[in-house]
Amino acid sequence: MAFQIESAQKWKFDVFFNFRLQDLDKSFVADLYQRLKDIGTNAFKPDVNSEWGEQISTEILEAIEESRIAITIFSKDYTSSPRCLEELTKIMGCVDNKGQEFFSVYYKCEPLDCLRSIVNFGADLKGSDLRKVQRWKDALRKADDMEGS
Fold first, then answer.
1. Please, what is the Cα angle at 76 between 74 and 77, to 5 degrees?
2. Active site residue 86
3. Fewest C-beta in 10 Å: which of 66, 93, 131, 141?
């Protein structure tokens, strides 16, 4: 009983989805959230009209921290989105520090094709951008390693 109470207090959301909206069918996203809602799963759903830019909002950072499970939907151009990569970096931190569970899905791409873009990713950036890109690469590698576990 105490475990259930602690668990309920620890997580505000059951699931947080990390994805590049431009790569997905709008009906895929809507159907996914609706199906989860139908079975009683509380998934964080960002307001795509006001929150969906390349910057990661405080609301999204908090939702990542408050989610029991994070699911990244990798797509062909996923790595072209700094916002997605920042979210993934935050998720990997929560996996390490908060016991968050992580799963990945590959949408209309093969895992090897989706993650192949990591190899030359950020090669033309300089200065502080290189540190950011290295954090993103580390997060992508960790996600890939977890997929293979």
1. 95
2. no
3. 131
pLDDT for residue 127: 59
The CA-based angle 105-33-98, given to 5 degrees, is 60
The active-site residue out of 62, 87, 101, 110 is 87
91 contacts 102 by C-beta, under 8 angstroms:
yes
Burial class (CB in 10 A: 0-12, 13-18, 19+), 139: buried
Tell me the fold of 10-148. Answer: Rossmann fold (3.40.50)
At residue 78, the pLDDT reads 87
pTM reported for the whole predicted model: 0.83
